[in-house]
Write a structure and sequence with these properties.
- The chain is mainly α.
- It has a single domain, classed as ABC transporter transmembrane region fold (Up-down Bundle), CATH 1.20.1560.10.
- The protein contains twelve helices and two strands; from the N terminus they run ααααααααααααββ.
- α5 (69-116) runs antiparallel to α7.
- The two termini are 35 Å apart.
Amino acid sequence: MTHNYEAEAHRRPKSRNLRPLMRLTPFLGRYKPRIVMALVALLAAAGATLAIPLAVRRVIDSGFSAANVMLVNQYFFAMLAVVLVLALGSALRFYLVMWLGERVVADVRDAMFAHVLTLSPGFFETQRTGEVVSRLTADTTQIKAAFSSTTSIALRNLVMLTGAVVMMVLTSPKLAGLSLLAIPIVVLPLVVYGRRVRLLSRKAQDTLAASAAYAQERLAAIATVQSNVQEEAARKDFSSSTTIAFEAAAQRTFARAVLTFAIIFAALGAIVGLLWYGASEVLSGQMTAGTLSQFLIYAILAASSLGQLSEVWGEIQAAAGAAERISELLDEVPAIAVPANPVALPQPGIGRVTLEDIEFRYPTRPATAALHDVSFTVEP
């Protein structure tokens, strides 16, 4: 059974979660060793980053006097070692994750193309070739971003956020408790407005596919277009479709910009409030300047990680929309099933074929019969 994807894109329920991406996880499962190596590199880099504020606190609390020169030097040498681990872990993570993204997308494209080749002619009667090509190219490119840089950034910031919050609690439970009050303010826009970003991302992908499909059809029939002097009409129609695609992309970009503004302002605003309160604690002797500095660095790391999560969340949602479109194509069932045990024709060919009272209608013109009550016999 075939479906008109473009028509259904406007009437089917929109995906409100990231479940479409889970359909593509079997492609990742083929490369488990590299995934494990990437996770180890990610944890090493995150751990190194979280260790730096500890050294900063000790340097500040030890003071910068001549009597503490050796101690200060030791801390800075330790920080250099931590930075080396951070650099190596980040580089290894980047390479492995980008490799995985490229490899997974190549496998997805192979699977999609192999499946398309099995679909019946009726599918290609109802679907524009440009729409299918768009899913093979534009949508898989969106998936590549999700399985490479976007996922890597999201995981890194998720680990950093978790580690920073834990260290904030260990450093100062009181300040950590106050910072928890700001979490609902930061998370609410991410949950509520993120839905709009996802819907706009799907709309942008659909309009881009429609534009590509139109261009492919006109260029494939360029001789007909030129012989009927329709170049200007085709140009205007394509210009209109690209304008619609641009407007959809601009709406998505604006929505993501608003989401980013809300998250960053709320997160950094909370840090300013914590700094204000922490300064009063230092002045009253309730904590040391080094402890406050350590807490603030962890708070900044947590806020920065949360802010970056808000940015990549929009990209992940866009990838979920692309994954949904890819899944629709992979789920398309051929109208004619290939026999499990085909029987070879006898050589030389014998027998005859008889067709009686045949009626045939093209899928795109179901109301008009191309053949009606046709009967004939073919024999040697």
